[in-house]
Amino acid sequence: MIFLKLLRESFLFAYDALTQNKLRTILSLLGVTIGIFTIIAVFSAVDTLRSNLQASVDKLGNNSIYIQKWPWMFGNDYPWWKYMQRPVPSQRDFEELKRRSQTAAGVSFEVFIEQRKVKYKSNTVSGAVLYAVSHDHNITWTYEYAEGRFFTEVESRTGAPAAIIGHDIAAHLFPAGNAIGKKIKIMGRNVSVIGVFKKEGQDLLETSADKQILLPINFVRNLIDLKNPNYHLSIVVKGKEGVPEAEVESELQGLMRSIRRLKPGEEDNFALNKSTLVSNQLDQLFGIVNLAGVVIGGFSILVGGFGIANIMFVSVKERTNIIGIQKSLGAKNYFILLQFLIEAVVLCLMGGAIGLFFVYLGTLAVSGFSDLEIILGTQNIIQGILISVSIGIISGIVPAYGASRLKPVDAIRSN
């Protein structure tokens, strides 16, 4: 109880000192405010970008491996001339993988077709992204449907003229709603709409299904040449539940080398891409951005800390007589130390709170002008508070300790 009473009195002394010197207090807050604002704003921006990018990457599928001609990631030595000579994934590769793989839950053959025009009566949508897929695409990629369904196995096998369209396409072609069962014209052919994807919104990697159209690959193969290099072909393999991704990747590498009859020691003429490659690159990138934010904000906080320390030395000098009177009346050293240390911590906490408030206002502003989900998590707020308290303790401990060691008689006699 005595300690709590002393702590309360220390807060009151600190509050009185801060309110009596308002201008000095405000100027002291600026450095800490700017520093906390910079650090927490960078942390929040990084968390926001990481979350949104990771959500886009997660759409590629966990434990899903993409067999393609080109790798997603490459270093400084990029032998593009070798990749140019690689064959594109073929129907034979797909069928053999599906037949031989023991670790795959699903194997999908997919073709990305350049943006095309889609019509329904007098309504037209330009820039629709067409994907021709095999039946297992429903396993290797997860969709949510606003209405309708995925292709049946019979529709996929026979190449039925059916399509699943994105939310934005459905909204433009069918403003009155009820797209299911309607016939739209794609690539000069009439196809029936059997499903509409749930609205996803645009993400940072532009993997949204809002402007996509799915078609059975056996329907599209009659309209385009699947060996044409202008189309992006890939085979997507989804590993079985509980099977490590490394095991799936190892099996696929062996199977692909066998299917393409590559000799021992001969380089792979295919790329095995996976979402973890992108995630690892994002971790490295955001690690650098975080470090830059800490360095920039650290300098601001360092300046603010020196400012707080300077103000505390001035405060001790101004109140030396009062310190002498307090000690002559029986005040302990730790009471004097707490009095000034709490003043420094309160100053830094006020600066940190103002900095966090400005970060919060920034998140509201960005959310109002964009579709991004801005993240100002509890962890960031706690970090801001802890940094503020730490700066207060570090910048205030020396002046506070010096004040606590003053002798009563010398302090009273000082001018």
Outline the structure in words:
Belongs to the ABC-4 integral membrane protein family. Keywords: Cell membrane, Membrane, Transmembrane, Transmembrane helix. Residues 295-408 form the ABC3 transporter permease C-terminal domain. The chain crosses the membrane at residues 26-46, 285-313, 334-361, 381-403. Its main location: membrane. By secondary structure, this protein is an alpha+beta fold. The protein folds into two domains: 2-56 and 281-413, no CATH class; 87-269, no CATH class. The protein has helices at residues 2-20, 22-58, 80-84, 91-100, 137-140, 153-158, 167-173, 217-220, 245-259, 275-318, 320-328, 333-369, 378-404, 408-413; strands at 64-68, 104-120, 123-133, 145-148, 162-165, 183-186, 189-197, 212-216, 232-239, 271-274. The protein has a six-stranded mixed barrel. Helix 2 (22-58) runs antiparallel to helix 10, helix 2 (22-58) runs antiparallel to helix 13 (378-404) and helix 12 (333-369) runs antiparallel to helix 13 (378-404). The radius of gyration is 33 Å and the shape is elongated. The chain starts with a helix and ends with a helix. The model has no long low-confidence stretch (mean pLDDT 81).
